[in-house]
Fold these 2 entries.
Entry 1:
Amino acid sequence: MNQPIVLPARESLTSTFQRWWDTQGEWVEEPNQRRAGESGVQRVRLRDASQPLLYSKRQIGHLYRSLAHPFGRPTVLRELQALQAFARLGVRVPELVYCGTRQQAGQWQALLVTAELDGFVSLENWYRDGHTERHGTLVHQRMLAAVGVALNRIHRARWQHGCCYPKHIFLRVHGAGDAAWVEVALLDLEKSRRRLRRSAAARHDLRQLHRHRQDMPVEDWLRLLAAHTTASEADAHVI
Ligand SMILES: Nc1ncnc2c1ncn2[C@@H]1O[C@H](COP(=O)(O)OP(=O)(O)O)[C@@H](O)[C@H]1O
Ligand SMILES: [Mg+2]
């Protein structure tokens, strides 16, 4: 969080959580019933037009259970942990604006607000909207390699994304021609967790991405996979 976005105080008794809870926009993902609770995402434009567009994940009773939290804990807290861990590993993630939880009448409410990944397009839309043709073969190949390397970076740290679909891999092209490079950001980390072995994390995510690769031609998939493998081997020499 670089410069925290502070909502204007309406009255001193209104909690920060309540003010963010009241800050709403149009649904990007309508609330759906999962994990005996509900979760949805809204796109929020603050009145201050100089602020970035925000994405607000709103959840009610949406919990995960683990050995450390047998009675359940809001999934946004797991996502928050993963956002911070991925950023520390040098993998771009949406910038955190606000995260908070509270219990209302015995039910959890939770919020995770992030700034829009400006100038990025999802891997799903990359294929759908013809970015390969727009940027050319070289940039396209660099994009595939960058995705393989970014995934390898979290896997090397034994992190598993857990929801590794093309719609959760975001891409931004910087520069042009020979100097062009592609930045990769990962989002929707609410299922992300650490595994005991890097191979288990990698196997899970790569199988998942392969299953959901949709329009990706097989040669593209192999290129992405090769970059993932090469990054692993490069790492093995360092250790
Ligand atoms: N910070 C962000 N920048 C750009 N797009 C975002 C951002 N956060 C969420 N989105 C968009 O909203 C969609 C839903 O968010 P996501 O975190 O996947 O929530 P859910 O758990 O409901 O799937 C994403 O697939 C993405 O298209
Ligand atoms: Mg999602």
Entry 2:
Amino acid sequence: MTPHGLDGPTPAVTYTDADGGRHEIACAYVAGCDGFHGVSRASIPEGALTTYTYDHGVAWLTVLADALPPRHALFGIHPAGFAAQFARGPRASRFYLECGTADSLDEWGDERIWEQLRLRLGDPDLPTGPITEKLFVEMRCFVADPMSYGRLFLVGDAAHIITPMGGKGMNLAIADANVLAGSLRAALREGDEGPLAAYSETCLKRVWDHQEFSRWMHEMMHEAGNVTLAGPFRRQLARARLERLFASDAAARAFADLMA
Ligand SMILES: Cc1cc2nc3c(=O)[nH]c(=O)nc-3n(C[C@H](O)[C@H](O)[C@H](O)COP(=O)(O)OP(=O)(O)OC[C@H]3O[C@@H](n4cnc5c(N)ncnc54)[C@H](O)[C@@H]3O)c2cc1C
């Protein structure tokens, strides 16, 4: 799939079907919803976008297992590293384990995974089950500004990625799509291109707000437990942040508001 003529009045998308046939779709607008590695953002000329990146310097191993989920999401802050468990249906859980950026799956056999989860989640009786997926997640952030070029509008991971801390990636993608749908409706039904012109600015406000929250939470969850990562001073700051959530109703409410 390749977008064409994005900076003119008549953009088009060409693609090849499963039988090798070439097709062209004439478009009024193009929505680039093809994820971080898609062709949409790559088709924007160099220099038209400013990109921002940040690497947290750690990785997560994420594991999907047919293991009974907890009633509430669990976060484990431990000197051995961060861990978490979330429900993924009535009989399945997704687990996360902080690990090194150079770790390989060979180093993370099932036995080590369960042993580290029991340790970091503080539950010697943690329900286990067959592991159905194991993969590493890069703890990396990326934002492209603006989220549009001519008649192309980038949506979701095509425009920005965020670490899983805070669970905002899919939520941001849906929020972008919602803003774009409303903006396209205004342009096509009412002839008002104002919302489309403001699309990028509208979405980027939310994107940066969520990036900030995710980064704040990442530091708290990792540094409060891991002395070696950022040093003892940062560890004390992270602990103070964590304790504030339990000591102050206002801080707890602000956290819940951002999290939800
Ligand atoms: C392990 C993990 C856990 C996560 N957990 C959460 C969570 O709990 N909460 C949350 O909010 N987010 C979470 N996320 C992030 C979330 O999955 C992404 O932010 C979200 O899927 C982005 O949606 P998207 O539609 O923009 O991109 P994608 O989901 O990447 O979808 C893009 C689609 O475009 C398709 N595509 C690409 N190129 C082409 C092409 N040339 N032609 C046709 N199709 C193409 C791809 O095949 C893909 O289906 C998690 C991510 C990971 C990796």
